[in-house]
Design a protein that fits this description.
Length: 555
Amino acid sequence: MIRLFEQHVIRRQKELDGVWRFVAEDGRSYGIPVPGCIEQHPALINYRGKGTFYKTIRLDKRTNVRLELKGVSHTADLYLDGTLLAHHYNAYTGFAGIARDVEPGAHEIRVCVDNSFGEASALHIPNDYYTYGGLIRPAVLEEVGDAYIKNVHFTPCRLTDCWGGRIEVELENLGSKALLAEIRAELAGTLTTQCVEAPAQCTVKAAWDVRCGQAAEWNMQDPVLYFLNTQLWVDEKPVDDYIDRVGFREITWSGSRLLLNGSPVFLKGFNRHEDYGTTGSAVPLQIMVQDMDLMQEAGANAVRTCHYPNDERFLDLCDERGMLVWEENHARGLSLERMCNPNFDRQCRDCIDEMITQHYNHPSIVIWGILNECDSASEEGRRKYKSQYDQIRSLDPSRPTTSATCKHFQDICLDLPDIVSFNIYSGWYQDIGVRERHEQEIDWIMQAGGRGKPLIVSEFGAAALYGCRDRGHCKWSEERQADVIRENLEVYREDDRLTGVFIWQFADCRVTEEEWFHTRARCHNNKGVVDEYRRPKEAFDVVKEIFHEFKNNVQ
Ligand code: ADA
């Protein structure tokens, strides 16, 4: 499944799921499922390096072929019949390549992948999560005409007496002749049209406002979604379409509150890595649904996509369930030295650009985040934080920005984001009273740039090995994890200066042995309230007990 709904009726689209041939660096060949991770094969559990995927497709007529890969970990070169269509870095955003005038018959897709570490990769590094290898998200084959719709964005807006919004359509003319196109957009019972001239071999944009008198609000209790069905007509004939799903909701922030449709919300969230015990980062839809069911059973109303953009199908699920999302660009714990990698700025810029371009329409996304626990304590680091916040605001001023800091008492960037967020592990890394440490943190934040802003405890928690029970509640036991989470939640639930908390973390995840084995038993981050197979630990029931007592909306 490419998305949780059909994106095209006119455009021919096919998912290239199944078993692709994978040839490893040493020439050995394997059948690897797509979507899937190379590491799920018993002979490739620790695979780190280059390799090539092959797939044969057959066309029944001459056409322009558009190949879209939703996620390849972590660097990819996409070829069709030996011609390079696209190069892409980063496992967590999609990319596409187009081949023009491809003849009917058999054709070979080749995807050269590389999940190795080194200076070429500033963001995928040995880390407290695992960089897998492979086509970890759907691969899609499409047939497009010379004119096709490249992207559609919708920005909802509350008008005086109803909902409305702004539709922005980007279309590309691959042909050698200019054309006059008509764009028809149907949304919530309202049909609008725009004519646009598209010069040869150009991409053009059209934008207009729309009133949707019958549209109902999207919110956590009633996440009403509408199809935005955009068609492209040329010479009175429909030649392409692009269907997306949107919600009419407004995110604002005022003082210490984050507001959804004008009402203050309190985010009761989990940090969730995309990682499942048998499939790695190619989390199947069944497990995405199970994760959502478990998080909602625990009383969560929010999820943070730590520490990278997530699979569109999971975001679709959040839209459907009214689960609020803090989505963030790809970065975790990068030192200033790593932030000065010559590829860092460009790789971050591309990731932010693709994340917002590709995920803009999801009503569930309410916060854009950057640079988790990177260097926000130096002037050079500050310049990079500011540049990325500026980039986000230029792409999407409708959502607030934040970044989770751990540079306690040293951070010099808290004046930059709209929301101040901090990661704190009282009771685990620091055997200090939670309340005492929390007051220290808030006092510091208030005078370091956070005063008058919404505040989020973006990470807190403790590790427990699934099944490890200890009557003495020793560290690493399920009992101790439950105790620490309870103590933290009891403090945060009473603090009305907070607008949200995110537990670290929902499920255990694999980490790299390199640099992390010494504090990560099993080479896993064991702070999940469920393990990597989604088996709940004792802490799950503590979260469930307390989250359900939290008020969803705060005054
Ligand atoms: C940090 C980091 C997380 C994880 C966590 C931990 O806050 O943001 O990715 O590494 O610590 O488990 O220690």
